[in-house]
Automatic annotation (TrEMBL):
Homology family: Belongs to the zinc-containing alcohol dehydrogenase family.
A family per Pfam: ADH_N
Name of the protein: Theronine dehydrogenase
Species name: Streptomyces mutabilis
Cofactor dependency: Zn(2+)
Length: 344
């Protein structure tokens, strides 16, 4: 089978590997679609994503879906040909968390994630024609949800987790700053959870077009001098840019809530934060998700349309070109998809 394997900075290859055989408790998937994420780009460009650095080759990809090809021993509840996606996280160790964060497994300190170099050996991802996956990580797709849509359940789960950090969005005004794939999905998730007016802001007109297609009522193009709205009840900061924090805090209403979705740098960075205190803003973080992938699948089954997010599709053997398009801010890309089947 073919797989997309990163060996180091700027070195990604399409390699032939043995087709896996599912062990006890595993399901073999014939994969069909994968979505390129920022971490995939980072491994390709830098040989690392955050603090996770490559020490040996890694199969990329944690957003993927396909069909059941074979069942390992003792696996029940699935059938061959069934369309499925995957929860990419598996806890390492006893899984015990302090009582104050009980159940918030996204905060567990040791997690193997598909397509991640956080552990040695690394955890290969799903940008391959086949992948054996523990049955407990597999999620069936609802009727009518394609495997291409199913590959977007993981990033939609990230967005739903972020939206869920605010107890009740119904009827409330929302600002989403930063309209890359996650920001645009936050727009869709907020709308799905009953938000009132949703405003989206970004520097790129192409990203704003996607956000509007995903449900934004209004867009603000920061690159041409559009300012952020004032006194917004709930703000989602999805750009991860420290320079955006000052304007975003100023846009948040007194006593309002700011949810930090975009990853901020792990090193010192200048930011204007005075309004956090004087406006008594509640600033909370949002990291990955717990089981919101199930919520994402229900939303897709309910008809939530994520197709406007997809701007480019490439066959597996053009993975490096796909990564380059996804990484290029001038390409106009949002979510870039890889067709993983042999027919691609």
């Amino acid at each position: 089978m073919r797989a997309v394997v990163v060996h180091g900075p700027g070195d990604v290859r399409i390699e032939e590997r043995a087709r896996p055989v599912p062990e006890a408790g595993e399901v073999l998937l014939a994969l069909e679609w994968g979505g390129i994420c920022g971490s995939d780009i980072s491994y390709w460009k830098k040989g690392a994503s955050g603090t996770a650095a490559l020490t040996h080759p890694l199969v990329l990809g944690h957003e993927f879906a396909g069909r059941v090809a074979a069942l390992g021993s003792d696996v029940t509840g699935f059938r061959e040909g069934q369309p499925v996606t995957v929860h990419p996280a598996r806890l390492v160790g006893d899984g015990v968390l302090p009582e104050r964060i009980a159940g918030r497994t996204n905060l567990y300190p040791h997690v193997r994630y598909f397509g991640s170099a956080a552990f040695v050996p690394h955890t290969d991802g799903g940008f391959s024609e086949y992948r054996a996956v523990p049955a407990v990580q597999i999620r069936p797709l609802p009727d009518g949800v394609s495997t291409e849509q199913g590959a977007l359940a993981e990033p939609l789960a990230v967005a739903l987790h972020a939206v869920g950090r605010v107890p009740d969005l119904r009827g409330r005004e929302v600002l989403v700053n930063g309209c890359g794939p996650i920001g645009s999905l936050v727009v869709a998730a907020a709308r799905y959870r009953g938000a009132g007016r949703v405003v989206a802001a970004d520097l790129a007109s192409s990203s704003l077009a996607v956000a509007r297609a995903m449900g934004a009522d209004e867009t603000r193009d920061i690159s041409v001098g559009d300012g952020l709205p004032e006194d917004v009840d709930v703000v989602f900061e999805a750009s991860g840019a420290p320079a955006a924090l000052g304007p975003v805090l100023r846009a948040t209403a007194r006593g309002g809530t700011l949810v930090q979705v975009g990853n901020l740098p792990g090193t010192a960075a200048a930011a204007t934060l005075g309004d956090l205190v004087t406006r008594e803003i509640t600033w909370i973080g949002s990291y990955r998700f717990v089981e919101e992938i199930d919520d994402a699948l229900r939303a897709l089954g309910d008809g939530l349309d994520v197709s406007p997010l997809i701007t480019h599709r490439f066959p597996l053997n053009r993975a490096e070109e796909a990564l380059a398009v996804a990484a290029d801010p001038e390409s106009g890309s949002s979510k870039v998809m890889l067709r993983l089947t042999t027919a691609s």
